[in-house]
Specification:
The chain has 225 residues and is mainly α. It folds into 2 domains: 103 residues, Helix-hairpin-Helix base-excision DNA repair enzymes (C-terminal) (Endonuclease Iii, domain 2, Orthogonal Bundle), CATH 1.10.1670; 100 residues, Hypothetical protein, domain 2 (Endonuclease III, domain 1, Orthogonal Bundle). It is elongated.
Length: 225
Amino acid sequence: MAKKETKAERQARVIKVLEALDREYGRSYVCYLNHENPWQLLIAVILSAQCTDARVNMVTPDLFRKYDSPKKFAQADLKELEKDIHSLGFYHMKAKNIISCCQDLVEKYGGEVPRTMEELTSLAGVGRKTANVIRGNIYNEPSIVVDTHVKRISRKLGFAREEDPEKIEFELMKVLPKDHWILWNIQIITLGRSICVARNPKCCQCFLQTLCPSAQAQLSKKKEA
């Protein structure tokens, strides 16, 4: 039976993981959803639910030309907007949320995207994940975005145990230093798309393999096979 890791040992491993991620991917802030301003990013994140960033980026150029302000989205015809975003899936709810969200942006916030968690999550279609994307990328507020990559890989690394994204966010807030809260999502997305892919993780190629309990278990199984 493997020896249980102490809190101090885990914290030392956290630092080593962060140093390795920084060396491999750098510390630049990157947003994978194309946007030119805060409200465009807000809408792009709402559209990205259950959809890839690449697919959203294919739709938003024409969408943002047609609706070039929150006011235009607020006044949009629901059926027409549904057609405009049909290819992204869940278009009924997304269209409804975008219109409602932009109505609040116009009526309550003068067309500006608010910055507090409470204000952001009061908008239709905006949960903690979306709010943290805005807070981190637009306002540079230390925020942890828990998407599918972050959830899966944080659990593999032993930095989170919960299943619920909000609970994982709070777990990671206790584990990660604040200067890596925004970076964690950026770096882990890159890792998850290239090496630690969901269906067939390339543990033998991963630069974190000696620091990852899941990788160690997988490599041990291969040796025994």
